[in-house]
Amino acid sequence: MGNTTRGVAPDIMTEVEGSSGAAVDGHDFGGTAEVESGPDAAERELVARAVGGDRAAISEVVRLLQDPIYRLALRMVWRPADAEDASQEILLRVVGKLGTWRGEAKLLTWAYRIGVNYLLNLKRRTPQEQQQLSLDEFSEGLKDGLAEQDYRGPESSLLTHEVRLNCSQAMLQCLVRDERIAFVLSEIFELSSAEAAWISGTTAPAYRKRLERAKKRLGNFLTSTCGLANPQAFCRCSRRVEKAVDLGRITPPRPTFAAHPLTPGGRTVDSAARQLARPRAATPPTAGRAAQEVERQMAQLHAAAAILGAHPDYAAPQAKMDAITTILTSGRFPLLD
């Protein structure tokens, strides 16, 4: 990597060689990978109305994009307050650039592209990024204060969920940003490699290398540390509750992630947790590799994807989204002039 600070990617444009694509925020933010599917007629019509100044259409664009963009930001910046700020900036950029959308991808995919560019180059750093915390160091920290028995106090189930959700967010921050976004797009959002590479503004081979590094690191971490991934590992969410409360990492009156507002009809905390019991389909062994070794590695990678992906469908804060819509439909938003 060209930048030695853990968690912070170099400007993504320095990594794209021989790429071509649409301009985003002044950059030729392209990639050679192709997007698998484009927008439908209704989406094109909605964007055309929004670009034409139709306030109802602008509001609808924000409504369609706000929760997915917020969830993307939340995975990258960890804290909801920071994700709110990032989402606001991304949505303003997206709507301001609607006139440049040519239907090369679905509207959400195109919006992800703008969001990823913004998030990869965000100057604000998470606490793990500031400490340059590695997954090995994070693992060692989890041993400190681990109780001998499961937590049985008030709201034990809720707080155990909170530890799991907070911990999975924190471990993502131990990856450099380009690896983190690769894992989020492919393993959590389950986008195809072609779409994720296009969103990331890189070539498909470069993207796959980032993703494999992220999967290997997280798989090794979870196998050695997390009892959800490996029954022989030392850490248990229910035994971290008291220490997490003492450190101020979770707040019992209103847990940050376990009590977070949800998209109506979306996954709840409990339904997301049940996802951990559903294994993903494994890939067959490749030539020259022992079947048992392949199965072991696939189990690691599937555990990482399941554990980090088992979050509820968080909703963007409605008050902030309403404020964005008010700005955009006020007639004073300069990028729509």
| Rg estimate, integer Å | 21 Å
How many β-strand stretches? 2
Q: Which outline best applies?
A: globular
For the largest beta sheet, what order do the strands appear in spatially? 1-2
Beginning-to-end CA distance, first to last residue? 40 Å
Q: The biggest beta sheet, please?
A: 2 strands, antiparallel
Per DSSP, what share of the residues sits in E-state strands of 2 or more residues? under 5%
Summing up helix and strand content along with how strands pair, one would put the structural category as mainly alpha
Mean pLDDT: 83
Ranges where pLDDT stays below 50 over 5 or more residues in a row are 1-33, 279-289, 291-300
Helix and strand string, N-terminal first? Answer: EEHHHHHHHHHHHHHH
Helix content: 40-55%
**Number of alpha- plus pi-helical segments:** 14
Tell me about this structure:
- This protein has 337 residues and is mainly α.
- Helices cover 53% and strands 1% of the residues.
- The protein has a two-stranded antiparallel sheet with strand order 1-2.
- Strand 1 and strand 2 form a beta hairpin.
- The protein is globular, with a radius of gyration of 21 Å.
- The N terminus is likely disordered.
